[in-house]
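DM from R.C. (forwarded with permission)

"hey, sorry to bug you on a friday — could you get me a structure for this? deadline for the figure draft is monday and I only need the backbone to look sensible"
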Amino acid sequence: MDALTLFGLFAVTAMLVSYALEDRSHWFVLLFAASCALGSAYGFLQGAWPFGLV
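My reply, with the result:
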């Protein structure tokens, strides 16, 4: 597994965990937003610019 794949795995895992814990604290909402930004960056980095754009 290369570094880009690990970055994408981290971004998606962080999104899922923070989404599941959103009701517990407003910090998880902020973490979810940051994780979405990381997921978008991953989309651009892997060459899927429509995914990164959305």
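R.C.: lifesaver. The mean pLDDT is 92.
me: no worries. The radius of gyration is 12 Å.
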